[in-house]
Amino acid sequence: RNAIVFRVSSEEAATAQRIIHELDRPKKSSRLTYTITDMDAGKRVSVERFSMIATDEYPVTLKQGSRVPVATGSYSSGGSNSAGVGVQTQFQYIDVGMNFAATLTSDAAGAQLKSKVEQSSAVEDKEISGVHEPVIRQATLEGTSMLTLGRPLLLGSLDIPGSTAHLDVEATIELLP
Questions:
Q1: CA distance 163 to 124
Q2: Alpha-carbon span 108 to 148, nearest angstrom
Q3: Average pLDDT over residues 140-162
Q4: What is d(CA 73, CA 47) in angstroms, rounded to the nearest whole number?
Q5: Neighbouring C-alpha atoms within 13 Å toward the C-beta of 76
Q6: Half-sphere exposure of 147 (CA within 13 A, CB side)
Q7: If we measure between CA atoms, which residue out of 26, 33, 47 comes closest to residue 111?
Q8: What is the mean pLDDT of residues 34-50?
Q9: 160 compared with 49, residue with greater pLDDT
Q10: Given this model, what pLDDT does residue 135 score?
Q11: Other C-beta atoms lying within 10 Å of the C-beta of residue 110
Q12: Which of 13, 83, 118, 145 is most buried, judged by most C-beta within 10 A?
């Protein structure tokens, strides 16, 4: 509710009003931009930018990607024929793509950024007991950093196994009016 109740004398009312006035300030909002640069053998392959509006001290998330079906079981519903009619397969869906979770705490020169960046993808299918199942590759970068307004900060670099490629993850903030 964000409510405060005071029971004060008339002399203490001015102090109570000053305290409420100090607490009742709008939170700062910033544009937080993550830049993901795909590098291979030292050459830039692609650049993707993901932006979101973050309000001071409130968590914000962004997800972009697809849902990949994974067979979790099957059963026979009674009769079946050579075409497999009567066999029911159950699926569960896994989110793949880019996921960002961030919380900003502003100060005069920038902000403290607590963030988690996850990148996942279905890279191939493997046959397990006659069923083709996707292999999911995942990388996570999590930490706390100090950002300066308008200046990109390299949060980390994620190697892609079995290749000469890696992803560079940068973050930049801009204060909104």
A1: 15
A2: 9
A3: 91
A4: 39
A5: 7
A6: 30
A7: 33
A8: 94
A9: 49
A10: 86
A11: 19
A12: 118
Q: Where are the alpha helices (DSSP H) in the chain?
A: 10-23
Do 170 and 148 meet the contact criterion of CB atoms below 8 Å apart? Answer: no
User: Position of tokens 């050459």?
Assistant: 43
In tens, the pLDDT along 68-125 reads 888 787 777 665 555 556 778 788 898 999 999 999 998 877 899 999 999 888 887 7
- Contact between 76 and 55 (Cβ < 8 Å): no
| Percent above pLDDT 70 for the chain | 92
Count of residues for the chain? 177
Q: What distance, in Å, lies between the first and last C-alpha atoms of the chain?
A: 26
Supply 18's token pair.
């000053």
Q: Is 149 helix (H, G, I), strand (E, B) or coil?
A: coil
Per-residue confidence at 171, pLDDT binned at 50, 70, 90?
A: very high
CA 112, 115, 118: angle at the middle one, nearest 5? 160
Amino acid at 94: I
